[in-house]
Write a structure and sequence with these properties.
- By secondary structure, the chain is of the alpha+beta class.
- It is 43% helix and 19% strand.
- It has two domains: 5-49 and 122-167; 52-114, no CATH class.
- The longest helix is centred in the last third of the chain and has 23 residues, at 145-167.
Length: 185
């Protein structure tokens, strides 16, 4: 299924026991509470795990101006960048102020978690996000600690299932060689 922001908000409203909305512009107290936290909660949930549907690959070109010290090259991260998953052939790096700093070449290859559009969500992730939104909006809308505890319990079941299914989509990652590991043998 292809999801929209409206559909996910309506899923959260359903989990809270509230009526759905037809437009994002509707003035409904429960919907307003969910809409207010939506973008931040979406970014946090996407960045909390290595979701296969949200991983992108890109080749970055070094900026003309190098960092002041510590590294030789700096690369601007993409606008939808949430977190770095892998950087190819650059064992030492730092993420700093919207840039990747390394000592490696004029170009680097990276894999990162992107703040993807709802249309790219899996069914399981859309459900997880809706539950998380419902949990966060529960105090303001339902004002029930029991309802919040029930939602949290459901969220845990759904997030664990989503992570298991997602893990099947990812290839096993080979661990990098390390001086620390080599020194032990």
């Amino acid at each position: 299924m292809v999801y929209t922001k409206l559909q996910i908000i309506n899923m959260a409203l359903t989990y809270l026991g509230n009526k759905n909305i037809e437009l994002l512009t509707e003035d409904n107290p429960a919907a307003n509470a969910v809409k207010f936290i939506y973008d931040t909660t979406k970014a946090v949930e996407l960045g909390s795990y290595r979701w296969s549907f949200a991983v992108k690959r890109v080749v970055l070109t070094a900026e003309l101006i190098a960092p002041l010290f510590g590294f030789d090259f700096k690369y601007k991260v993409p606008a939808d960048f949430l977190k770095l998953e892998e950087i190819v052939e650059a064992p030492y790096y730092e993420c700093e102020g919207g840039f990747l700093l390394t000592n490696s070449g004029n170009k680097i290859k990276i894999k990162y978690t992107a703040n993807v559009a709802e249309a790219e969500f899996t069914d399981l992730f859309a459900d997880v996000l809706a539950y998380k939104l419902a949990i966060k909006a529960c105090e303001k809308t339902a004002q029930s600690s029991k309802k919040k505890a029930d939602l949290y319990s459901e969220y845990n079941v759904h997030i664990n299932n989503a992570k298991k299914q997602n893990a099947l989509q990812l290839a096993a990652r080979q661990l990098r060689e390390s001086e620390f590991v080599d020194a032990r043998y």
